[in-house]
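quick one before i forget lol
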Amino acid sequence: LYTAIEIGLSNFANRKEGTPEDKLDKEQNNIVIKNSLFVRDNYAYVKIVFDNILYLKSEGNYVKIYTQESNHMIRGSLKSTIDALPQNLFFKTNRSHVVNIKHITSIMPAEVKIGATILPLNKDSREELLSLLQTL
């Protein structure tokens, strides 16, 4: 059953008539479909809705995805993970962190706060983030 489900998900992601939103990230073995991401967790694929992602953190060859319910570690670079996410919803604050704009509670000169979590913010990224938020 597990193999049949995995083959079905892979075939769905690799279909030729798929939209750009429906794609398989070969490096990470994760599937992006519409407003969610399926990440491999041991022998299962776990669905993560984009709106539930708080932020992402690069940890060497891995990316840790922090959500409202739990955390998931996936193999791959932060850049390839960002490419699979909607550009209008996620913002790179520095070289190792990406935040979900919807969950930002405050922006300080060198930090972004998401709930009780404080993440570093580059000076150049701060100006870009503020201008992005003004256009929303």
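fyi Confidence is low (pLDDT under 50) at residues 16-28.
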